[in-house]
Amino acid sequence: MRARHLATAAVLALTTALLAAAPAPAQPSATDPPADGRFAPARPAGHTEVPVEGGSARFATPPALLAALKAHGVVIANVDAQGTVTPHHDSGGISLGIKGGAVTNSGGKVGGELRFADSGIALINRRTNKLVKVTGFSVDLGQGALRARLDRGPKMTVGTFTRPGIAASVDTDAARLRMDTGITVTEAAAKLNAALGTTGFTGGGPLLHVRVDAALDPSVDLGTALNLGHRPAPSDAGRRSAGSAGGGEPSEW
Fold first, then answer.
1. φ/ψ (deg, to 5) at 116
2. Residue 70, SS3?
3. 140 strand-pairing partners
4. Which of 32, 62, 145, 226 is least enclosed by beta carbons within 10 angstroms?
5. Bridge partners of residue 78, in order along the sequence
6. pTM more than 0.85
7. Alpha-carbon distance 163 to 152, whole Å?
């Protein structure tokens, strides 16, 4: 009997020693896959969205398009946020305030979105008395698309542009996004011809020239957030050359 008790005690002692010597269960680390075996992709450096806090954009009509519209009796007027059309004017420019959006680094190009004030323009054919209001402008920086509403309908892409490089467009010292580019007419925008009773708009032809000066969140480290490194701020000469696609010096609305 005593021998049996001694044997049992020896087994218990050996089991306790083995459990004490066994390593503690490994704690999951940040690199371990989750329980379902799928990795959650890490957010790439430089893809942070930087909020846009204001600014403005100046839109202008290329001379060739302005002349074609005038030849067909079409004039341009301003539309305020309530939809009221101001007196007609044959030239000049329109400035729209930027009310929100965000900027990202999308493969080394400017990405994100700019949303503009609710005002816009009206295109009026004096010969046919037809009128089209173009409001609700926004710029899809990632797609290189200018979108707007025609007569308060659903948004449509009215123009496209070549996306500029992020490093050449962001001034880290001033916390500004600056773009100077030409916008071409889409086939959808060319439908304005039917709405106005004209043939002034040609798909793929020049539509607008735009200069954007957007204020970015100054509390953000733009070099890190947009993966800019230590590149110099864009020069005025560089910004001027970036917009040559608009078809010469534009006449502003």
1. -105, 170
2. helix
3. 113, 145
4. 32
5. 121
6. no
7. 27
If you search the block for the tokens 């054919």, which residue do you land on? 125
- Report the pLDDT value the prediction gives residue 220, as an integer from 0 to 100: 95
Q: What is the pLDDT of residue 109?
A: 96
Residues in the chain predicted with pLDDT less than 70, given as ranges, are 1-47, 88-93, 230-253
Q: Which residue has the tokens 């989750």?
A: 34
E strand or H helix at 9: helix 2-21
pLDDT in tens, 185-195: 998 888 888 88
Cα separation, 210 vs 93, whole angstroms = 10
Question: Are 146 and 157 spatial neighbours (Cβ–Cβ below 8 Å)?
Answer: yes
Token digits of residue 99: 């009310």
Positive or negative torsion for Cα 239, 242, 243, 244: positive
Give the separation between CA 251 and CA 192, rounded to whole angstroms.
Answer: 20
Structure tokens at 141: 């920086």
- State the number of CA atoms in the 13 A half-sphere of 183 facing the CB: 28
Contacts of 80 (CB under 8 A, 6+ apart): 86, 119
Residue 39 CB coordination number (10 Å) = 9
| Predicted local confidence at residue 67, as pLDDT | 87
Q: Hey, what are 16's tokens?
A: 């306790």
